């Protein structure tokens, strides 16, 4: 199996949970506190909480912030955050939305001169993985920056959270690290199993930056004018490549290549089981039909030139077969 979607779908491992990880108010819970301290020390935060990694879970975080100041959310964030923002608005609270430019970058103009206390923005945009310079963001706002650190951690973040599904492959609770921003959780409400699984998978997380340019060169060679780009690959994370293929719905190629044990994705919506085109590409100003052309690749395996050529030629063969049939 050749896995080219690791940033959206993790490499699944067997989950073995010892009874020693159970929590009990009558015990010292030494193992839990050791894991917690190690995790906090690694990222230099003072506290953590676990929460449901879905729109309702993020909505609960937004509601806790509502009396502390205005919230802004980049439309390039994970689907759960964006949907939570919409729910927050339905409750009558204000959200300042930060848009994307045509090239996929965050629109800094939407941040300038805004009265923002909390800004949900990460060092990368979902689906395309276009990088966002959080240090530059700091020059435009004094807001507390809350970021997704699942595939990349930026030290300019004030609060970070981790997506359990993209790390573990199961939607356990998410984990958020902060410095006294949120109310402490009673020990009985803490999902210590999620904490254990997430910390364990982060230790094993691996990406490779050596394949991006090789895949791009070979794909352009075999696809010729049938390939194009929504974003400049020099602006994306080094282990990712975002492409688009003319006249095809990405999900058709995803399904076909999976039979060849080659795994790709068109973005977060695909990994969540949503039969929808990329919301990120649409937020950049493209229509729904064109947005279906997008394919997101992320690399963790070491592949030699022979395998890269074989994969890219198979991409093209399946692509041509689908176009003929449709």
Task: Characterize this entry briefly.
With 326 residues, this protein is of the alpha/beta class.
What is the fold's blueprint, element by element?
Blueprint lengths: L1 E2 L26 H14 L3 E6 L2 H11 L5 E4 L4 H12 L4 E4 L19 E3 L13 H5 L5 E5 L10 E4 L1 H5 L4 E6 L13 H13 L7 H12 L3 E2 L11 E6 L4 H10 L2 E2 L4 H4 L7 H5 L4 H4 L2 E5 L6 H21 L1
Parallel strand pairs: 1-11, 3-4, 3-5, 5-6, 6-7
Antiparallel strand pairs: 2-8, 7-8, 9-10, 10-12
How is this structure best described in words?
There is one protein chain. This protein is an alpha/beta fold. It has 2 domains: 19-204, Aspartate Aminotransferase, domain 2, CATH 3.40.640; 208-325, Aspartate Aminotransferase, domain 1, CATH 3.90.1150.10. 36% of the residues lie in helices and 15% in strands. It is built from 12 helices and 12 strands. The protein has helices at residues 30-43, 55-65, 79-90, 134-138, 164-168, 192-204, 212-223, 250-259, 268-271, 279-283, 288-291, 305-325; strands at residues 2-3, 47-52, 71-74, 95-98, 118-120, 144-148, 159-162, 173-178, 227-228, 240-245, 262-263, 294-298. The strands form 3 sheets. The chain has a 7-stranded mixed sheet, sandwiched between helices. Strand 5 (118-120), helix 4 (134-138) and strand 6 form a beta-alpha-beta unit. Helix 2 packs across helix 3 (79-90). It is globular, with a radius of gyration of 20 Å. The two termini are 27 Å apart. 42% of the residues are buried.
């Amino acid at each position: 199996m050749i896995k080219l979607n690791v940033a959206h779908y993790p490499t699944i491992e067997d989950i073995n949970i010892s009874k020693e990880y159970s929590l009990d108010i009558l015990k010292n819970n030494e193992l839990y506190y050791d894991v917690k301290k190690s995790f906090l020390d690694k990222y230099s935060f003072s506290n953590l909480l676990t929460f449901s990694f879905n729109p309702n879970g993020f909505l609960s975080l937004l509601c806790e912030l509502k009396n502390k100041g205005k919230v802004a959310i980049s439309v390039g964030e994970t689907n759960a955050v964006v949907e939570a923002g919409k729910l927050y608005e339905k409750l009558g609270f204000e959200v300042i939305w930060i848009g994307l430019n045509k090239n996929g970058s965050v629109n800094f103009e939407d941040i300038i001169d805004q009265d923002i206390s909390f800004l949900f923005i990460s060092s990368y945009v979902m689906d395309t993985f276009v990088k966002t310079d959080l240090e530059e963001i700091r020059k435009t706002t004094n807001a507390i920056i809350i970021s997704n650190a699942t595939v990349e951690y930026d030290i300019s973040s004030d609060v970070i959270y981790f997506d359990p599904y993209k790390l573990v492959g199961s939607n356990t609770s998410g984990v958020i690290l902060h410095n006294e921003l949120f109310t402490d959780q009673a020990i009985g409400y803490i999902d210590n199993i999620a904490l254990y699984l997430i910390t364990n998978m982060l230790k094993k997380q691996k990406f490779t930056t050596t394949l991006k340019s090789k895949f791009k060169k070979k794909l352009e060679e075999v696809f010729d004018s049938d390939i194009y780009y929504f974003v400049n690959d020099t602006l994306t994370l080094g282990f990712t490549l975002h492409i688009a293929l003319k006249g095809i719905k990405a999900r058709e190629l995803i399904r076909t290549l999976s039979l060849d044990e080659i795994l790709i994705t068109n973005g977060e919506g695909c990994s969540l089981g949503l039969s929808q085109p990329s919301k990120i590409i649409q937020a950049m100003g493209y229509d729904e039909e064109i947005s279906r052309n997008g394919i997101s690749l992320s690399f963790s395996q070491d592949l030699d030139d022979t395998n890269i050529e074989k994969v890219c030629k198979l991409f093209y063969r399946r692509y041509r077969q689908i176009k003929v049939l449709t």
